[in-house]
Design brief:
about 550 residues, alpha/beta, seven-stranded parallel beta sheet, 20 helices, about 45% helix, globular, binds adenosine-5'-triphosphate, hydrolase, EC 3.6.4.13
Amino acid sequence: MAEVEENPNIVVEEESIKKKRKRKRDKKNKMVVEKEQKKEKENEEDDEEEREVDDELKAEIKKEMKSGSGIMSAELFSSIEISEPTMKAIKDMGFEYMTQIQARAIPPLLEGKDVLGAARTGSGKTLAFLIPAVELLYHVHFTPRNGTGVVVICPTRELAIQTHAVAKDLLKYHSQTLGLVIGGSARRAEAERIAKGANLLVGTPGRLLDHLRNTKGFIYKNLKCLVIDEADRILEANFEEDMQQILKLLPKEGRQTALFSATQTKKVEDLARLSLTAPIYIDVDDGRRRVTNEGLQQGYCVVPSARRFILLYSFLKRNLSKKIMVFFSSCNSVKFHSELLRYIKIECHDIHGKQKQQKRTSTFFEFCEAKKGILLCTDVAARGLDIPAVDWIVQFDPPDEPKEYIHRVGRTARGEGAKGNALLFLIPEELQFLKYLKAAKVPVKEYEFDHKKLANVQSLLEKLVANNYYLNQSAKEAYRSYLLSYNSHSMKEIFNVHRLDLQAVASSFCFSNPPKVHLNIDSNASKFRQKKRKVEGSRNGFSEGNPYGKKGGDDTRQFVRY
Ligand SMILES: Nc1ncnc2c1ncn2[C@@H]1O[C@H](COP(=O)(O)OP(=O)(O)OP(=O)(O)O)[C@@H](O)[C@H]1O
C-alpha cells in the first residue's frame, strides 16, 4: 500500500478511475431517472388513453341510445335505488349497465306506477319487470304468511319456467318465496307450495285460474302487482276467457299492473279490462326504422310448394354444424318432419303442444345447452324463450301475422351485438306477405337458391313414406293439419287454402298423390271459390261440379271435404 501511496501517478490514476466511476454512476442514475420519467409519462399517456377510450365508450353507448340501434343504456344499475340483496344478485348475473327498457321502465315501476313496456326481442324485459317486483315484495316485508304479492303471467309453460328461473336468481339473497304454476305439471305439489305462501308467483293462465278457483289456502287478497309478459298474446282470443276470470278474481284496489311485450298492445279495449291507472307507455324502439335486431340478417326464398321439404332438407344438411330452429304451423307437422328427418339420418329435437310437459321441458333445456343442432317447433317456442346462440331461424310454414314473425326471429341475435340469421319460406302465391312485413318495418332480402343443387331424393322419400306405416300415418296427419292451419290463417287474402295446389302440397309431404284426409273447412270456401273463379279463374280446379279439384279423368288424388 505504502508503495502505492508514494507513487503520485498511481494516485492520479486512482483519482481518474474514481471520477470515471462516479460519471458512470451518475450516467446510470440519470438513465434510471429518465427511464422512470419515461415510464411515468407513458403511464400518464395510458391513463389518458384509457380515459379517452372510456369516454368514447360512453359516447358510443349514448350515441347508440340516441340512434336507438343498440339495446344498452349508459345507466348503471347502481345509479337507481335498488336494495342490497337485489343489487348483489344482479352483480352475480354479471350485469352492470341497464338495457334501455330497464333504464326507462324500472324507475316508474319502483314508484308504483302502471307501465306498458315495449322493446325489441332479447332486450332484457324480464329483468325490467322482475327487479321492481322483487323490490316491492322486499320493501313491504312480504313473508310466506302474507301469501302472493306479485303474479307474473306468461303465455307458454317454457317461458314461465324460464321467468321463474330468473326470479329465483334475483331472489337469491332475499327471504321472499317463489312459486311456479304451469299446465301439464303436478298440480298437487304446486298447490302445496301455494298454500305455504309463494310471494312471487309465475304461471300460465289456465293453471293459474285453476289454483285461484280450487286451491285451498291460496292467499291472493294481498296482491300488490300483476305483471303480464307477452301481453298482446295473453290478451288475444285464445286466453280471453281464462284472463277474464283471472282479472275478476284478483284484487284491483291498490294493485299495480305492468304489461310487457316486443309487440305491445295499444288496443283500448284490451287495456280497459285491466283497470290500469294512468299507465305510462314506454316504447324504447319508437321511431326506429326497423323493429328487429341490428345483428339479424333476414331473407326469404320463393319455393314451389312441391319443393319445400327438399329445400329444407338440403338447407339442414348443409348447416349441420349450426344451431337452428325451424317453425311449423302445427304439432302434427313438427311430429312428422322430426320423424322423417331422423329416418333419413338428420338428428333433431322437436317441441310442440301435444307432447307431455316433461318431454317438452327436457327438450327445451337440452336445446338451450346444445352448441349445435336442430329444433323443430310450433309457435309454442316463438315468444320470450332465451335460448343461447341460435344461428338460424327457419320459418318453414309462414307465421300467422308479421307480429308473430318478429317474435319467431327474435329467438336469435339476442342481446347487445349478437348476430343471427333468419330464413322465411314462401310459395309464389304467398309473396304478398312481404308487403306486410315491410309495413311492419321488417327488412327482408330475397335469398336465391340453385334448384339444380337441391338433393334429388323426392322419389326415395315418396317410397319411404309409402312403405312405412307409421311414417305414412304421421305424414297424413301432418298434411291434414297443414291444410287446416292454412285455412285458419288470419291473413286469408294471402294464405288462402283454396288456392293451394294440393298435388304440390302432397309432394312436399312426400306423397306421390294427395292422400285421403278428413277436413272441416269452412263453408265460406265455396263462396270464395265462386268469387275467385269470376275474377281469375280456378287455379286448383275446385268448382261446384268438381268439389275435390280433380284434374281430369286420370286424376287419382283423393281429397275429402266435410
Ligand atoms: N342489463 C343487462 N345487461 C346485459 N345483458 C342483459 C341485461 N339484462 C338482461 N340481459 C340478458 O339479455 C338476454 C335477453 O333478455 P330477456 O330474455 O329478458 O329479453 P326480452 O326482452 O324479454 O326478449 P323477448 O321479447 O324475446 O321475450 C338474456 O340473456 C338476459 O340475461
